[in-house]
Amino acid sequence: MDRELPRTIALVRDALLPDGRRVDVAIAAGTVTGIAPARTLTAADDTVLDLDGQLLLTAPADPHAHLDKALSFDRIQPPLGDLGSAIGAWRDHAATMTVEDVADRARTQALAMLAAGTTAVRSHVDVLSGHGEATVEEATRGARALVQVRRELAGLVDVELVALAGPHAPDDHVEAVLDLGVDLVGGAPHLADDPDADVDRLLAIARRRGTGVDLHADENLDGPLTIDRYARTVRDWPRDRQYSAGHCVRLGTLDPEHLDRVVADLLAADLGLITLPITNLYLQGWQHPVSTPRGLAPLRTLIDAGVRVAAGADNVRDPFNPVGRSDAFETASLLVSAGHLTPDEAWSLVTDGARSVMGLPRAGVAVGARADLLAVDATSLVDAVANAPAGRSVIAHGRLVAVTEVRRSVAAPTLPAPAGAVA
Questions:
Q1: How far apart are alpha carbons 380 and 283 in whole angstroms?
Q2: Which segments in the chain show pLDDT lower than 50?
Q3: Domains (ranges, CATH) in the chain?
C-alpha cells in the first residue's frame, strides 16, 4: 500500500473529457464544484492532480459481483463447464471455507477492482445453507466475512451486499444474514423446483424486512421465466429502495411479442436489469456446439424501450468464470463486441447505469456530482475501451485512492535505407 494514499484532491488540472474539451475540475467535500478551461483554476499544490491531457471519466461501479467466490479457481480446480457444473464445484468447496479465507480473497478482489477504477461494488454473498442442513453460524460465514471487508474498505470502495439465498436456504438463515447488516434480499428462483413459489418467498422476506431486492433471474436459455412475476409483484412497492435483476439471459430467447410484454412489466415496475457478459458468455451455450447462442439479455431492445440497464463483471476467476481482469473496460469491450452496443453506450452501462441500479448518487465531471473519477492515458473513450490503458489514477469521494504507473520500452525497428543511399 502507498503510504501517501489516500490524498484529498481539490483540483484535477488539464483533463481531457470525452467530448474533446480540456478542463480543470474543482472539487470540495467529495463533490465537483466547478469546471473551467484547462489551467485556469488554482489550488494548493498538494491538492492538485495534474493530468496533462489524460482522459477523465466517471469512475465505474460494479452492480453485480461475487466477492465471496472471487479468486477461488486455482484452489478448487473445477471442471470447465456450464452453470450446473459450476454450482456443484462451488458447493463442494464452500463447505470447507472459513471466514478468514473468504475475507482474504474478497479484500484482494475489491482492491484490484479499485486499482482498475471501480469505486462502488454490489456483491452477492451466499447464504451457506447447503441443502438446509447447516447451522446458522455455518450459513453466515460468507456474510460475516464480507461485512468485515466492507467495514475495512469504508471510504475507499462503496460496498453493497446482497443475501444470495438458494432454494434450500431456510428463511431463518436468510434473516440471520440480513441481521448482520447485509443490504438487500437476493436469490436464484429459476433454480428452484417451483420458481414462482421461490420468487414469492424471497419477496415476502424483503417486504417484511423493508429492504430492496436484487435477484438472479432466468440464467438459462430455455425453461420457466421468473422476472415477469417479480416485476408485477413489486410494481407498487415503495420506491425508496432498489429492485433489480441480474443475468436475464432467457429474455434473449423470447419471441418478440413475449419480450414486449415482459419489457412492459419491467418499465411499469422500474425494475433495473443487470447484464453480465463475461460470465454468461462463458456459462451459456455449452449444449449448442453449432450456432452457439451468445447467452446475453437483449440489450438493444431493453435500452431502446427505456429500461434501466447496467452491466457488471460478475464472477472473477472462480468456478463460474475461470478468467476476468477486474476491469470495467473489459466489461465495456464485451458489450461492444458481443452486445452490439456503441462504446459510449457500453461505458454508460458500467458507470451511470450501474450507479442508477445501485441507488447511488450521480458521479462524474458535472457540477454537483460525486467526485468519483477515473483518469487514463487515452485520446478518447473509444481508445480507452479498446486498449484499457494500464496507467490510471482513481479518485473516490474526492480523494486519490489508487495510482498505477507504467513504464514501457520497445526496441526501435530497423528501417530500410532510402533509395539511392550509399551503404
A1: 32
A2: none
A3: 7-58+365-404 (2.30.40.10), 61-358 (3.20.20.140)
